[in-house]
Design goal:
Elements (H helix, E strand, L loop, with lengths): L3 H8 L13 H29 L7 H18 L1 H8 L4 H24 L8 H22 L6 H34 L1 H20 L13 H13 L2 H9 L2 H20 L6 H23 L5 H21 L3 H29 L5 H30 L1 H22 L1 H4 L3
Length: 418
């Protein structure tokens, strides 16, 4: 029993609260809407890099893909703190409906670009920036809405099941569908499917009923300053937020930039394998999240620190693989390890934060996570252009393992979390 409320109930002889978040109809709707949204966003994660790759010269592929990814993530990082303040002041359902409507609108433009076989790639950059800006408000709103839909006893499983479903569609179903559809019907069909899914997600989120956040009595800058002071006084939150930047630099950046190039250049496979290999990672995240639901780890803080070390080792091996079967197996293993980090960092942040600060804390998580990604994309693009995809993956794997060792040695406040 990791939850203090469960331990107190057991000591008093009272039956523990049910831990099944699907007992809440609002959670069920939130979960299904997240699955649909994740599938749509996952399709875009594969289709946009393929759109760019096929329109530039061989030596320009990695920098161009990296630049598009930076254009999408940098605005989201810069607006992340504002997104958290808004999530603590505005009804979160309304934020989600409007931001997914914006994403739908952008995807319509991708359909038009692909259908007209436009060879220029410059339109991708403002479209990506618009999606990233909307994401700065989507992510803290979606995360901070969850605790209002479930009881405290249901929260950990709600986070794990929510992460499991969203990541399974974002990293498995969406990319796999994109690879298969692009291979069979082309980019236009993949972008059109993305439009339909994002529109359905916006409609599904509109049906959720949740309380309006109470007014703080402060202006936006005052709320933001309060949030920063609150986190500065919480060593555990500071440690968790520092760890949140590791995946973007050392894992997501090199993986996303190199995958569309590894498939044809190293594995000699068709474009559907870009989606299928991304899906192998997502399958590992899904399976790991499912296992954590039934068998939670007793020392969650230690598990978070270890996940960076183990992830770096797996990435080293993935960078050395030359066969599709070996790469697929390593990506499943990588996803299993990543599920520990993804689920427990979010759960621990939500458990350790005061309810009135939750939106701002989760926006700081988004800031750390998404601010790291442009650096990861940029470094991976430059390294891949200079040294090639396998060497880039191996260098980042070694660096991630070293960072993991430092986290184990220095972040004692995080290691102690159970």
């Amino acid at each position: 029993m990791n939850d203090p409320a469960e331990r107190a109930a057991a000591a008093a002889g009272a039956p523990p609260e049910p831990r099944n978040p699907f007992a809440s109809a609002s959670f069920t709707r939130w979960w299904l809407a997240s699955l649909v949204a994740g599938t749509g966003v996952g399709i875009q994660a594969v289709s946009v890099p393929l759109f760019i790759r096929d329109r530039v010269g061989q030596g320009e592929r990695a920098p161009a893909i990296a630049a598009a990814l930076v254009a999408q993530t940098l605005p989201g990082a810069l607006l992340a703190l504002l997104g958290g303040v808004v999530a603590d002041r505005v009804e979160r359902r309304r934020i989600l409906v409007r931001t997914y409507a914006v994403a739908t609108f952008v995807s319509v433009f991708y359909v038009l670009l692909a259908a007209a076989d436009v060879r220029a790639i410059w339109p991708v950059f403002p479209l990506a920036a618009l999606v990233g800006s909307a994401g700065a408000f989507t992510n803290p709103a979606r995360s901070s809405l969850l605790p209002a839909l479930v009881s405290r006893a249901q929260l950990q499983n709600g986070v794990i099941l929510g992460t499991m479903g969203f990541m399974a569609t974002l990293q498995f179903l969406g990319p796999t569908l994109a690879g298969v559809v692009v291979d069979a019907r082309g980019l236009t069909a993949a972008f059109a499917l993305e439009v339909a899914l994002l529109a359905v997600a916006a409609a599904a989120f509109s049906g959720i009923r949740a309380p309006q956040p109470p007014p703080s009595g402060r202006d936006v800058l005052g709320d933001l300053a309060d949030g920063l002071r609150y986190v500065a006084g919480q060593p555990r939150l500071r440690g968790l937020l520092a760890l949140s930047g590791v995946p973007g630099v050392f894992f997501i950046g090199p993986f996303a930039v190199t995958l569309p190039l590894l498939v044809p250049d190293v594995f000699g496979a068709s474009d559907k394998w870009v989606g299928l290999l991304w899906g192998c990672f997502g399958a590992g995240v899904f399976l790991g999240s499912l296992l954590l639901t039934f068998r939670p780890l007793p020392r969650r803080g230690l598990a978070v620190c270890l996940s960076n070390l183990l992830g770096g080792i797996v990435m080293l091996l993935y960078g050395r693989s030359e066969e599709l079967s070996a790469a697929a197996g390593l990506l499943v293993l990588w996803g299993l390890n990543a599920s520990v980090f993804m689920n427990y960092v979010v759960t621990l942040l939500q458990e350790q934060s005061a309810p009135q600060m939750l939106g701002r804390v989760m926006s700081m998580y988004s800031l750390a996570f998404f601010l790291a990604m442009p650096f990861g994309y940029g470094l991976a693009g430059a390294a891949t252009a200079a040294f090639g995809s396998p060497a880039t993956l191996q260098l980042n794997g070694a660096a991630a393992a070293a960072v993991g060792l430092l986290c184990l040695a220095l972040l004692r406040s995080v290691r102690a979390l159970r």
